[in-house]
What we know:
Metallo-beta-lactamase, Chain A; 17 strands; alpha+beta; 9 helices; globular; six-stranded mixed β-sheet; 365 residues; seven-stranded mixed β-sheet
Amino acid sequence: MSSTTINIPPSTATVSVTAFDVAEDPSKIRVPAAFFQPVLPGHEILHLPIFAFLIEHTSTGRRVMFDLGARKDLENAAPAVGALFKSFPDVAMPIDRDIVEQLEDHGVALNSINAVIWSHAHFDHIGDVSKFPASTDVVYGAATVTDTCTVNPASVLLDSDFAGRKSVPIKFDESSLEIGGFKAHDFFGDGSLYVLDVPGHLKGHVCALARVTPDSFVFMGGDACHHAGMLRPTSTLHQRAPCPADILEATRHTVSAEHFTPLDAEGKFDLTARTTPLLDVLPGMMYEDPVATAASIALIGAFDASADVLVVLAHDWSLVPALGPFPTSLDAWKAKGSKKQVMWAFLEESNPAFVFSPKLTRPVS
């Protein structure tokens, strides 16, 4: 399945994409496994990366960020963020260097960032825009609720997120452009970067599709879903990018036959016969509209099945072993064969994102 199948308009204009992990050490991040089902014993707490992306327009040098990750000083975040941590004492999100520090350490001047695009208005994505100069615009889907905590105590947005800078809502209904079933906005006007309207997780949620070579793309998925197992497998993937034989055989023994079907004649999990993702959307607080979320995930599946598109979800820990250390350029992912490395890695028992068999804990002696 090529990029033409998902109706990406042809262009020779490109951008460069550098991925940062604001968490740096995902094992330190602790969040409840409230995104998907089933959740097997021992996997009630997830450890996750927090990806942010520097995007540079090749022909003009203009730079934008797609997401900023979490801020370092969460005690100075909106009161609703502190209330969230009090409600979920198991949650931990220690940030040693925020994206501003990571950018500066990477030699990127903040005054060179023309805009920050939020995938959505959650605290682990909006960062602290006030650290950027007033020349940096803040961009978001037009459906985003932009009331700050001064107006709405439940909001995670601060007045300082908008003060003194240009706010740019992307109005998808002003264009007829669609890519892969999603309404799209051509950010630079030359086909190098598209912002996509991807509903479900939160009002205004968007993803980004970056053309890093004329025929290869990075799909920055935000929180459209939170685990590779919510995307895979699908019947198309089995046809286009079949699971390597060693991983396929291992899943017969490592994936719980009690929790996952179908089973083969020996009662072992049969991945080749499974044509829907292993993990389902868990209705509840993490997805504002579970039905729209499921529909969006199904559409992203076409991008995921394309040999021309690398899908990078904001919290996909399965990617870290192959793509890290961070920051790292994603421009040459296709030439490096990165997609083949990461596509089925989430099913390897040694992968940090493996959640498909109960994790036994030793009793304290």
